[in-house]
Amino acid sequence: MSQLSYRCILQFSLSLLFSAGLYFHANAGLKEQFDKGNELYRKGNYKEAAAAYESLSKEGYHSSDLYLNLGNAYYKQKNFAAAILNFEKALKENPSDEDVKFNLALANARITDKIEAMPEIFFSKALRKVLQLLSVNAWATLSILFIWLALIAAVVFLFFSRDTFRRMTLFAAMICVLFSIGFFVMSHMRMNFDENNRSGIIMITSVYVKSAPEEGSNSLFLLHEGTKVQVLDNVGTWSKIRLADGKTGWLEGKAYSEI
Amino acid sequence: MKFLSNYLKTTALAFLLCLPAILFAQVKFYATINANRASMGTTLQVNFVVENAGGRSFTPPAFKDFDVVGGPSTSQSFQYINGSMSQSRSWSYYIQPKREGLLTVEAAKIEVDGSMMATNELKIQVSGGSNPPAASNQSGQSGASAQSKVSPADTRDDVFMRVITNKTQAYVGEPVAVTFRLYTAKAIFDVQFPKAASFNGFWKYDLPQPQNPQWENEVLNGKRYKAVNVQQVILFPQKEGNGDITPIEMEAVVQEYVNRPPRDIFEEMFGVQEVRNVPVKIQSKKTTINVLTLPAAGRPDNYKGLVGKFTMEASIDKQEGKTDDPITLKIKVSGSGNFEAMENPAPELPADLEAYDPNIKENLSPSNSTVSGSKSFEYLIIPRAPGEYKIPPIQLSFFNPETKQYQSLSSKEFVLKITGESSRPASAQNTGSGKESVKLLKEDIRFIRMKNVPEARSEAFAGSTLYYSLLGSPFLLFLILLFVKKQVDDRQLDVTGMRKRTASKVAIKRLAGAKVFMEKRDRTAFFQEVNRALHAYLGNRLLIDTADLSFDHIKEKLVEHQATEETCKRVYLLMEQCNIALFSPSSGEGEMNNSYQEALAVITELENTLKK
Question: Residue B408 pairs with which residues in a beta bridge?
């Protein structure tokens, strides 16, 4: 093996070690804080529980569980907009989390705006579901795993020359390369999907959606807190948004929090 | 009383009733007309009556100045009074004047008992549009018998109604004050004030009718009348063009002094006058208002047909409230004009503000020939969801006929801050998932999860240098491995090189074997081995197949490799020696040793030669 690949592997394993070290280093305070939040929640002190979870989130920790718990704490305080925001964040971490889906549906039932979602085209829905199976990093890791598998198969093919075995390894190497390319594409598609599907939750009691990014333009419709909007574009402090039913308009960025 | 309307029949009847009770029937032939003053376009009825005679060959007049529009219709009547019989026969014509001025209906002629009789001529004053009453009604009626008729034309001049408007042209929606005023020069009683009439093409505002109408003295065209306002209305034209104020009709009884036909000789000498109560129908003249279209220039988009002068106030009783707590929005429009055309100034309310139909209060009164006052609209607004709402300014625009310009009014914008909980039932909003929503509202959220501690946010791995190097390095490695493999393969696959390289090794191995045979004194085996060593060396080194190992071929190759003639000869001699030795039995001990040394020397020499 060449010098370069040795170095790469070394680097990779070093970084793994490093992050693991960080993880274990921070774990003590982190677990304490998380448990504290959980304890407060169980005692019914939702406000302080939310504060505890929120501090973890601010420090950069994340997981669907953390967002679920934070959302629950807000839900119990009847702050449905913040609850929805955190449930949506949890879903972003794990799009197939049943608990989060259920709680999100409950929170959505309690907000003012009821927006009928446009039916999704079958193909795009299927693609979205597949893309959301794994995160960008997971797709990327898979693509790396498979390219290395392909390399191993190739080495076997080159240096071990028993006839039937050779042919099998050649076939395996090709399959692995194809899979790796596939996962690489998936990782990029997922990245694009995340970039194009920035969404936000309206966090102020009500806001008029305007026809243009300026205060004086016509009001198109009224949105209330808790409504999910898709963010399409940004001009200055204004954002172009689209509702689930297809209506679009402009509103000031401070009106919503991005998921 | 069908006096006027059924004149034809009653003329004869009235005439007969009034006949003097004389035994000797007097033959009369005369003409009557129902009006001696007329305006252009009115239809007049002319009767030619012959009494107490049959009459033959009636010749109507030429009607030079008139158009005959109807007739002649004839009627005949017989009557016995006190044993004397009277009869009459009449011809009626309906005529219309052709021109203005004093017109004449010429005499009609008839033959009675062989002699010709002629009627009187009738004079008719024809005027243009309306006919103002003249001071006198005496002109026209001439001829002895004509005076005996109770002419309805008499009342027309003495009792009439005028339509007084304050303007002759108006914009659509601009008020026009109309007064119907009754004039009478005769004693009049039993006046039946007309009921409120409706006017086609106008919206009407009735002015209150006084309980006891005051008769006033008024001089019109030099004649003294008593006058009273019969009806006063304010009309708002609804459509452009000529707006006809439809005539109104009323009934009254007029006291008249009638010259009765004399019954006897004394009466004939002094004349008789009778007081008669004549019921009359009085009709107003048709009056036309020229209704102008509202100018298109400068017309606001939200213009709804309001004409006049208005001001608007809008107020809200509170700016902050709770959900389900009603808020009152009051819009009050004051001024003068066509309030009836005012639509409810519906404020544009956000969807979460529920508003009911407004409570409308009107306080209108007539003034200065228009309607003024105020109209207020009270909207009860119920906020259904919390939030900050804006009620956009309420707009009202109107046309001011005085300045002939449009004006717009606008209230200020109202901002409502609503707190509290949304009271709107979720099911009301979307019917599809309504039931589901209601069901969801009853449930509680799932509990928190406590097992998995959150992770630190990892840096983006995909797209990082590490990622690309990990992704790219297998390809690079593969290339390197491919190169290594090629090197190995090259060496393995290079058979010729191998043969060349191993040629001397093989030969020396064989010579070593030969040496063993030499020590064992096995002569045949020794020479065989030397021969083989030589052949193997030459075959490998010169790449000659064993089958081609003839000396000629070997020599050819050796020359190719620049071997000297001498070397070739040495090789030949050695090969010959080996061949001969194989088949000749003995030639001493030194022979084998010599051959062995020679073979070594030859191979060494060839090796040196061929390497060059």
Answer: B397
A178–chain B Cβ distance below 8 A for any pair: no
Residue type (1 letter), A38: N
Is B415 touching A (CB cutoff 8 A)?
A: no
- What are the residues facing B330 on neighbouring strands? B315, B378
Alpha-carbon span B402 to B174, nearest angstrom: 10
Contacts of B471 in chain A (CB under 8 A): 143-144, 147, 180, 184
B466 touches chain A (CB under 8 A): yes
**Which residue bears the tokens 């005529």?**
B95
Chain A residues lying within 8 Å of B466, measured CB to CB: 8, 11-12, 15
Distance (Å) from the alpha carbon of A54 to chain B's nearest alpha carbon: 12
pLDDT in tens, B301-358: 778 888 888 999 888 888 888 888 888 889 999 998 888 878 888 787 877 788 878 8
By the 8 A CB rule, do B101 and B37 touch?
no
Q: What is the rounded (10 degree) CA torsion for A148, A154, A155, A161?
A: 150
Surface of B (87-146) touching A: CB under 8 A: none
What is the rounded CA–CA span in Å between residue B166 and residue B171? 13
Q: Omega before B474 cis (within 30°)?
A: no
Which residues on chain A are in Cβ contact (under 8 Å) with B436?
109
List the 9-48 stretch of A: residues with Cβ below 8 A of B. 11-12, 15, 19, 22-23, 26-27, 30-31, 34-35, 38, 41
Q: What pTM did the predictor assign?
A: 0.43
Backbone dihedral region for residue B140 (phi beyond 0: left; psi -120 to 50: alpha; all else: beta): left
Report the relative pairing of strands B37-39 and B122-127 from DSSP bridges.
Answer: parallel
Do B25 and B137 form a contact (C-beta atoms < 8 A)?
A: no
Cβ contacts of residue A142 below 8 Å, gap of 6+?
Answer: A134, A179, A180, A183, A186, A187
Residue B40 host element (H or E) = none
Token pair listed for A83: 């609850």
Average pLDDT, chain B: 76
Radius of gyration of chain B (CA): 70
Q: What would the DSSP string read from start to end of B539-561?
A: HHHHT--GGG--HHHHHHHHHHT
Token pair belonging to B166: 């304050």
Within the 469-508 window of chain B, which residues sit less than 8 Å (CB to CB) from chain A?
Answer: 469-471, 473-478, 480-482, 485
Averaged over B467-472, what is the pLDDT? 87
* Nearest Cβ partner for A158 among B458, B470, B485: B485
Q: Which residues pair with A175 in a beta bridge?
A: none
Of B48, B119, B57, which Cα lies nearest the Cα of B88? B48
Predicted confidence (pLDDT) per residue in B526-562, tens digit: 888 888 888 888 888 777 777 777 778 888 888 888 7
B432–chain A Cβ distance below 8 A for any pair:
yes
pLDDT score of A10 more than 90: no
CA distance B276 to A182: 120
Backbone angles phi, psi at B133, to 5 degrees: -70, 140
* pLDDT tens-place string over residues A141-198: 999 999 999 998 888 888 876 677 778 888 899 999 999 999 999 999 988 888 888 8
Check CB contact of B454 with chain A, cutoff 8 Å: yes
What is the C-alpha separation between B551 and B539, in angstroms, rounded? Answer: 11
Q: Which uninterrupted H or E stretch holds A23?
A: helix A3-42
Cβ–Cβ contact A155 with B under 8 A: yes
Does A208 contact B at CB distance below 8 Å? yes
For residue B285, the distance in angstroms to the closest alpha carbon of chain A comes to 56
Kindly state the tokens that stand for B199.
């006017």
Cα separation of A116 and A112, whole Å?
13
CA atoms within 13 A on the CB side of B308: 30
Q: φ and ψ at B255, to 5 degrees?
A: -85, 125
